[in-house]
Write a structure and sequence with these properties.
This protein is of the alpha+beta class. The chain contains 14 helices and six strands.
């Protein structure tokens, strides 16, 4: 709300009103304060019938106490001010509580400010009548109007402070409850009935339980990066070194586009869609993908989807097992030089993938078919009849694909 200009503190019209008249005005206004407060509250209830009623310990409405107290403080200031009718001190506490109530009730401050303005109008009408009775000059009464609206600004400031406190508290509480929900969702093992606990925790933050979820792991673009605006339905926990998120119904219309926009500038991985009860599995794949990204074995420029990199995740994950299998499967290449070993491995993989003859393999490798025929003869000499065994061919293709993904085609890791 825009503040009205402060009333000058030098020789104001209110200051020139004889003190006897001021005391008479204050005495009448103070005597009528309880009735005026009742009138204001009655009008507020008529205009805003759905506002909640909060009672104090004695059963009296807090709103009535606040209105009455605000009137009394204002009138006392008018009576005892040495300079002007302006700059009254706002009573603390009650109006901050009103602001907190609006925040906790999920309402905006607009209605509260409208209520305050209504109260000032009604109070001014009563003060104008009292002013006529004790013959306060019009210029002094106009000054009183400015003082009233300045006072209103102070009340609004108190309410805004309370509203902000409530909003911060609510946000903190929601984050705490959301974190507890995510902990339960992503736990590998559960005690008791996880479905019942999950339903209860989700209900506390108003999160509809989805049929499927995908779990993401993010890499911060900077230490103090602001949380991405992933949308209200996506659970996000920024407390981890690598933030986690749970995406409900990841294949729903518009969801991928929303995430793409929200995660611009971020890197990380989103695990495969899984049933809600299997969220921990999606997390495992996302974590595995991030580890490969950090080793430059997967693209690291943005947020990738594990379902688009299944081959790499399957073949690069069991590193020790693949290396051990490579030592056994590629043992015939042991006595070849590094360059010759790599060329034979490339030719063998192309042959296994195409299941074609020399022309098809040559086209894939970009070499002459005669070169391929020479290499294939060498391959048959090295592996013998075992090269025609389906299981052996499968193992060879598995190993060679994994090596190609790593950029180590033909290498014999662990060889002494």
């Amino acid at each position: 709300m825009t503040s009205r200009p402060a009333t000058l503190t030098t020789r104001s019209a209110w200051h020139d009103v004889p003190r006897l008249q001021v005391r008479r005005f204050a005495a009448i206004a103070m005597a009528e304060a309880p009735a005026l407060a009742e009138e204001i509250l009655s009008e507020i209830r008529r205009e805003y019938p759905h506002l909640p009623e909060v009672l104090d310990e004695s059963g009296e409405p807090m709103a009535l106490i606040g209105i009455r107290r605000a009137i009394e403080v204002f009138v006392q200031h008018l009576e005892h001010s040495d300079h002007s009718a302006g700059r009254p001190t706002v009573p603390p506490g009650v109006f901050q509580e009103f602001g907190r109530g609006e925040g906790l009730g999920g309402r905006s401050l607009d209605s509260l400010q409208a209520i305050y303005r209504m109260g000032v109008r009604l109070a001014w009408r009563r003060f104008a009548e009292i002013g006529q009775r004790v013959e306060i000059p019009p210029p002094a009464m106009y000054e009183l109007v400015d003082a009233g609206y300045e006072y209103l600004d102070g009340l609004v400031d108190q309410s805004v402070r309370g509203y902000a406190e409530a909003a911060a508290r609510q946000a903190g509480e929601r984050l705490r409850l959301q974190r507890r929900l995510m902990e339960l969702l992503l736990a590998e093992h559960h005690r008791g009935d996880p479905a019942e606990a999950l339903t209860e925790r989700a209900a506390r933050i108003g999160w509809p339980l989805p049929g499927k979820v995908a779990v993401g792991v993010l890499l911060r673009p900077a230490r103090e990066a602001v949380a991405p605006a992933v949308g209200q339905g996506v659970l996000l926990d920024m407390e981890y070194e690598q933030p986690r998120m749970v995406v409900p119904e990841p294949d729903a219309a518009g969801r991928p586009e929303l995430l793409h926009r929200a995660l611009t500038g971020w890197a990380g991985a989103i695990g495969p869609p899984v049933p809600l009860a299997d969220a921990a599995k999606s997390l495992r794949w996302a974590e595995a993908a991030v580890r490969l990204m950090e080793r430059d074995l997967l693209p690291a420029g943005g947020v990738l989807y594990c379902t688009e990199h299944t081959e790499a995740l399957v073949l690069l994950q069991p590193e020790e097992l693949i290396d051990d299998l490579a030592l056994r499967c590629l043992a015939p290449l042991t006595h070849c030089g590094p360059t010759h070993r790599r060329r034979l491995a490339e030719t063998l993989l192309a042959w296994l993938e195409t299941r074609g003859g020399a022309p098809e393999v040559a086209a894939r490798l970009g070499v002459h078919p005669q070169t391929v025929r020479y290499r294939l003869r060498q391959i048959r000499e090295l592996w013998g009849a075992g090269i025609d065994d389906p299981d052996r061919r499968f193992e060879l293709e598995l190993v060679l694909r994994a090596q190609r993904l790593r950029g180590t085609l033909g290498e014999l890791r662990g060889r002494r």
